[in-house]
Structures are given as C-alpha cells and as structure tokens.
Design brief:
This protein has 596 residues and is mainly α. The chain has 3 domains: 224 residues, no CATH class; 163 residues, no CATH class; 86 residues, no CATH class. The strands form 2 sheets. A two-stranded antiparallel ribbon has the order 1-2. A two-stranded antiparallel sheet has the order 3-4.
C-alpha cells in the first residue's frame, strides 16, 4: 500500500557517527527537480493558481488600456495632420508600449513572487506573499528589462542558427542541377534504387541536423531562463541577472536542458487534449497556461536552489534550516515475502518523463537504422536477386510482403527494447538508468519477463489514448500508469540516486583536534542545534566539490557564525585561528560533547 512517509533522518542526534558518509542537502536529478516542484505546487495549488490568474488579469487589463491608448494616439495623429497609416500606426504603438511593458513586467514580477514562495519552503523561511510583493513590485521595470534581454539574446541566437542552416542548404541545393532533378524520374530501376537510397540518407542527415539545432537552441534557453528568479532572489540588474543565470548553469547546462525538455513534454498531453474541445479549446488553453505558470516558476525555484547548493554551498548556513528537497517525493512502504519492510521513494512524473524521452529517442534511432539498412538490403540485394530468379515475379506483391514483415519487426523491436532491458537490467532501461529510477513488483522484488511484457504492450494505450498514463501517474497515490496497475509494478527511485558518499573519514588537523578538547568545556556549545551540526558535517564532506572561491567564502561565513554562537570573548576563538580549523574543531567538539 502506498503512503507518504516523512523522512526525519536529517534530524538525528549529533552523537551518531557521521564520519563514514555524508550527503549534501540537495543533489537532484533533472527529473526530480520537476517532480519536487510539482509536489510543492500541489501543497498550495489554490493560492498559486489564484496568484497566476492575477498575473493574466493584469495582462488582459493592460491590453485593454493599451487599445484605448492606441485609439487616443490615432486621434491625436489625425488632429495634427497625419494621414499616412504607417505614421498613425507608429504613433499609436508609441502610446501603447509603456502600458504593455508595464503589464508584461508585472506578470514577470508575479512569477518571481511565486518562485520566492516555493524557495522559502525549501529554506524554511517565513515570509508572507504580501511582504514579497512589497519587495518585488517596485522592481517591475527590472523584470521587464530582463525579459527583453532574454528574448533579444534568443532572437540573436535563432537568426545566427538560421543563417548557418541557410548557408548549408544553399551549398547543398546549388550542387544539384535542374537536369539531375528531372533525370531522377527517368532512371533505370537499378539506378533509381541507388539514387533513392542516397535521397533517404540525405533526408536522415538533415533531420539529424534540425534536431541538433533544436537542442542547441534549447540549450541556450536552459542557460538563460533563470533570469527572473535571479532578479527576485538577488539584488542585481537585468543585465547582471542574465549573466548570473548563465553562471549558475555553467557546470549543469545539460541538466538544465533536460529540465526544459521535461517541461515541454509535460505540456503536450494537456494541449493535445484541449484540441478535442472544439469551441471550448481556447478556454482550455487559457486554463492550462494559468495552471502551468506557477508550476514553471516552482521548477525554476527548485533548480535555482539545487544549483546554488551544488555550486555555491547555499545550504551551508547556520542561520537557515534547509530541508532536503527529496523529502517532498512521494514514498511507499512495501513488504517483501520475507516480511522485510522497504521504504522507497516513487519515481515521480518528472523522472519518468525524462526516462521515456531518452528511451523513445534511442528506440526510434534504432528503428530508423533498421529501416535504413533494411532498405539497402532489399533494394540492393534481395530485389535484384528475386527479380532475376523469376521473370514472372510480381514486384508489387513482394513489396507488400516486405512492408508487412518490416512493420511486424518494428512492432517487435519497440516492445522487445523495454522487455529485454527491464528483465536483464533489474527493472531499468537506458532511460531509466540515466533518470535513476527502476521498475519493481508491488512486493519490492525485481520484475520478470511477464511484468515487463504487460507494461510494454500497454505502453501504447498509456501514451496515445488521451495520454491516460500521464493522467494516472499524476492523480494516483502510487503514481501507477495503466501498465503498472495491470502488471502489479511500481516505478521507484534508484537507491543510490542523489547521494554523494565517501568511505574515507574526515581528516582533521592536530590543531583542530586540540581546539576541540577546549571547546567541549564551553557552555555556549550547547546552543548549536542538531540541524546546525549536520550543516557542519555536510560542509566538511562536500567542501572539496565547491569551487575554491566559494569554498573560501562559505568557510569564512560558517566560522563567523560559530564565533557569534560561542562568544567573541572565548579564549580559543581569540587566537586568530584559521577558519577551516575552527569549523572542524566545532564539529569535533559537538561529537565529543554528545558521546561523553
């Protein structure tokens, strides 16, 4: 039976031995970034959707006001003697731009408010929505300038890519002469097969080129799209926000790209379903946009939190109580036939979407290669041999048989991919392995060929029948699609995901160990809470993965906070010790105090 289970491991007493392994608060996969954000959105979805609705109302009202201002501009233009429609249009546009810009900036600022609300949950910060609005709304024009710079950057990249693609196409088509094109329809059967294979090869190469350019363009979106969150959380200008977004994603650009792709894929089911609503499709699309806006802002808040935790040690602060985002994943308690209880985190819609996208990409690449080399084999070898063997051979009938066999093999390949990998890799496909999830039975045991076959055969219904699988994963407590319900399986997190562990104990200097024995007698040492102790432990275990500049800054910050907690007049703290030695000594002193 699936149920949510709280995770209080982070609040263990600090007398426990933590030196053998350590874990940073937030190291999320791209799929879990989306899953955690959706779970945080669900906790206060009514409030978030109401706030999102307000942002779209502002757009609507400013649009009406801009229409009124355009009319005023047109009247003024005619009054001063302008009769050219182009001149009147430019004048009307000048009247509308300020109001339209304000409405857009207000909407982006409200997005920053939504992101701040979600971020505050992750760092356990109490701040009302009204306080956030009071702080952010005066910066509406900064948000608008940030959005303008964002779209200008993307527009420049788009035209640059279009120019490069245009040059490639120009060179390609200039090499094809008109006689060559017309001669294509008068070729002999053997030459026609050869040219057809060449044409198929060219088409495949151009498709790969377009896919590569699309991913390249999406990569820049993923590197720059955090500008509004940066403006909301940091006191920076619009230009600095764009630069800061690029800096934050510097070492996790592909993870950010994966998040953007997941977001795009999750929008396909609701938009596709809205197309069947006829005249109500417009209202459905509007509702989807209103509901998706806070979800996207929540995703931005979570990835901002995760990136700053990874790269800058955001959670290494004694003044905040940061929560582990993985605690927001739904969990399930399973009981094995041996009466062993397993507490597992469910896979989540984000991770499952990422795994599905990777598997589909690999699968369709394999199918394309199968058809491509199959076409070469048929046109170059089988067809000439069979045609020469019998003059009365019916080529049309042979083509039908070959198409039927190829279709059957394609269906078998698409199903055998999932069945073989999930059976041989203990519930994982290449996509699931990258997303760090796996399929297990409801008893927690590995899946067999029976369960994998059922899941694979029902996958088409889950995906193509009004995306019933996505709906079931979203609304069911155990996050099961139809294939999981019938096969009796669950998709859970891989147990190793998210952990940065080492088997080597902390190596402390002799000065730190000596200072620790003196700090144990300090009565102010008891003011350090278990959460603060865990923060010191996590920092000592993770600090070498931080950039040297950030490592120094975080070490100094923690040392200053320790001095404040233990008192500036304490003798050991007045010796001008190295900041890192003070942090290490405080960690050791807390351990010794609670072990004695």
């Amino acid at each position: 039976m699936a149920e949510n289970i709280p995770n209080d491991a982070g609040r263990a007493a600090y007398g426990q031995d933590f030196t053998s392994s350590h874990r940073i608060h937030s190291v999320l996969t791209a799929g879990n970034v989306v899953t955690v954000a959706i779970q945080l959105f669900r906790e206060k979805s009514d409030d978030y959707i109401t706030t999102s609705l307000q942002s779209y109302l502002w757009l609507f009202l400013t649009g009406l006001g801009a229409s009124f201002c355009a009319g005023i501009g047109s009247v003024i233009g005619q009054t001063i003697g302008l009769s050219n429609w182009t001149e009147l249009g430019i004048l009307s546009l000048l009247f509308t731009l300020p109001l339209l810009a304000f409405g857009r900036g207000r909407k982006t600022a409200i997005g920053g408010v939504l992101s701040q609300l979600v971020f505050n949950k992750l760092v356990s910060r109490s701040e009302t929505k009204e306080d956030i609005q009071t702080r952010l709304f005066p910066r509406i024009w900064t948000f608008f300038r940030g959005e303008v710079l964002f779209w200008l950057a993307l527009t420049g990249i788009y035209f640059a890519l279009a120019f490069i693609l245009g040059l490639i196409l120009r060179v390609f088509f200039s090499s094809i002469r008109d006689p060559d094109f017309f001669d294509f329809f008068t070729l002999s059967e053997q030459d026609f097969s050869s040219v057809l294979l060449t044409l198929i090869t060219v088409i495949v190469l151009f498709l790969l080129l377009y896919i590569g350019l699309f991913l390249f363009f999406s990569y820049f979106i993923a590197r720059l799209w955090l500008f509004d969150v940066v403006i909301a959380f940091e006191n920076v200008s619009a230009r600095e926000a764009i630069r800061r977004s690029w800096q934050l994603t510097q070492r996790q650009g592909w993870q950010s790209l994966s998040v953007v792709i997941i977001c795009g894929l999750l929008l396909i089911p609701p938009f596709s379903m809205s197309m069947f609503l006829s005249i109500f499709s417009v209202f459905a699309v509007l509702f989807i946009m209103i509901a998706a806006f806070p979800v996207y802002q929540a995703i931005k808040a979570v990835i901002y939190y995760d990136l700053r935790s990874r790269n800058e040690g955001l959670t290494f602060d004694l003044d905040i109580t940061a929560t582990n985002p993985q605690n927001h994943l739904r969990r399930v308690m399973l009981q094995t036939p041996e009466s062993i209880e397993l507490d597992l985190a469910l896979g989540g819609i984000g991770s499952r979407t990422l795994a599905w996208a990777i598997d589909q990409l690999l699968l369709w690449v394999g199918i394309c290669l199968f058809w491509y080399f199959g076409s070469i084999l048929y046109l170059s070898i089988l067809l000439p041999v069979l045609t020469n063997a019998s003059a009365a051979f019916d080529q049309g009938e042979l083509n039908q048989w070959i198409e039927a066999i190829a279709t059957f093999l394609t269906f078998a390949l698409s199903n055998c991919y999932f069945i073989a990998f999930e059976t041989l890799w203990q519930g994982q496909t290449p996509g699931k392995r990258i997303a760090k999830i796996r399929v297990v039975r409801d008893t927690g045991q590995p899946v067999g060929i029976k369960e994998s076959s059922i899941r694979s055969l029902l996958n088409s219904i889950d995906v193509f029948f009004f995306f019933v699988g996505v709906i079931l994963i979203t609304v069911t407590q155990s996050e099961k699609r139809l294939g999981d319900l019938v096969a009796g399986t669950l998709v859970v997190q891989d147990q190793q995901q998210g952990a940065h562990e080492t088997q080597q104990p902390f190596d402390f200097s002799p000065i730190s160990s000596q200072l620790a024995t003196e700090l144990v007698t300090n009565p102010q040492l008891k003011t350090i809470t278990p959460d603060q102790f865990l923060t010191l432990r996590d920092f000592l275990g993770y600090r070498l993965q931080l950039a040297s500049r950030m490592r120094s800054q975080v070490t100094t910050k923690l040392a200053d906070q320790i001095r404040t907690l233990l008192g500036q007049n304490n003798q050991p703290l007045a010796l001008g010790l190295d900041d890192l030695e003070l942090v290490e000594a405080t960690y050791l002193a807390c351990q010794q105090a609670n072990q004695s």
